[in-house]
Amino acid sequence: MALLPGIVMSFIGQIPLLALFDVMAVLCFAFITLHPTLSLYARKVILVICLYLLSIILLIYLGSFGPGLLYLLALTIFISLIFPIKFAFWSVAGNLVICILFSLLIQFSLIDASIIQHYTLGSWIAVSSNLVILSAVIVASIHLLFNGLQTTIVKEFSLQNQLKEESQALERMLQKMEAKNAELEQFAYIASHDLQEPLATILSVVALLDKQYKEKLDVNALRYLGFLSQASSRMQALITGLLEYSRIGKETELELVDCNQLLHQVLTECAEQIKENNAAISSDFLPTFYAYRAELKLLFENLLSNALKFRKSELSPQITVKATEEQDKYLFLVRDNGIGIEKKFIQKIFIIFQQLHAKSKYAGIGIGLAQCKKIAELHGGKIWVDSIPKQGSTFYFTISKDFTSYGNTIKANTAH
């Protein structure tokens, strides 16, 4: 459509040959557009040839006053975009050849065109050289630009593939870990549950022997029965602890928990132990949030029980419970003035069945802090301790504000 005004003006300006070429260009464009079986590559080649012919005709009849030079520049850009880069450099060479040929036409007056008479060779070279230089610069720039874009796109595509592969590998690892954890928990539950019965039988037999044959057994036999009874009782305690550990987070629901009420309930249940140790327990105002009530209660029970158990003999326990709200979590601390923990044992205390002291001195099976760690992680948080031997310990634990994804089989109860 843009050529139609040119056709009209060619007839008005009495340049019929230019009008004829414009009509032929329109027909050529129509052929390229409407031919049903013409390949894309053929369409591009025919279009470039037509535009080159049209550019030459415009140069001959209109010189640099017309759009001929602009057509050549536009053709170079067009070829850079639709053909490999080597064809674009050939286009620059073609522009140079056309400008040289046109210089010869001007110099030797080889054609009888009025427009040529307005040019000198110097003025034409000045104008056309700009075209050639600009064409070369544009082609080189487009080449560098497209190479940079291609490199960037390839790298981005490669990184996306790598990220996708790593994400899939991580997902597979997480699935395997979840399956292994579920398998281990199931094994712990089954093993501890199934071992309860034979242990109960052993304890019953020991009690029966002690009751019916106590007078007939010598001192050594009675001592051995005592060892057997103690070992069986401890094994039963370990199995019970393992069973309780495996049940943490099972078959429970999120509910709105007021930590002030929860702590008050724990202190009420531990009132006798608190009184026996002449302990003083203080707390700041604690937050309210959605959590697993039974598990959170067990966490407080274990930390307070440890603070009471590992006291200094010469001092009454002084225990402080505090909480602060942060951007994405709640941070709790339980501080005591007990015997403290040596630095080398800081990490060991959170491992199940690990005990730092002789069983005869401090009762227990070494599962309380392991339970605390599992409960904190169940709530999307973590637990750690700062301690100075003979001065006391401060246990910290966090509760995430958004931790529902940490309980795969647990549904949140959002009813108020």
TrEMBL record:
GO terms for molecular function: ATP binding. The keyword NADP does not apply. The chain crosses the membrane at residues 6-33, 45-63, 96-116, 122-146. It catalyses: ATP + protein L-histidine = ADP + protein N-phospho-L-histidine. Pfam families: HATPase_c, HisKA, MASE11. SMART domains: HATPase_c (SM00387), HisKA (SM00388). Its EC number is 2.7.13.3. Residues 190-403 form the Histidine kinase domain. Keywords: ATP-binding, Coiled coil, Kinase, Membrane, Nucleotide-binding, Phosphoprotein, Transferase, Transmembrane, Transmembrane helix. This is histidine kinase.
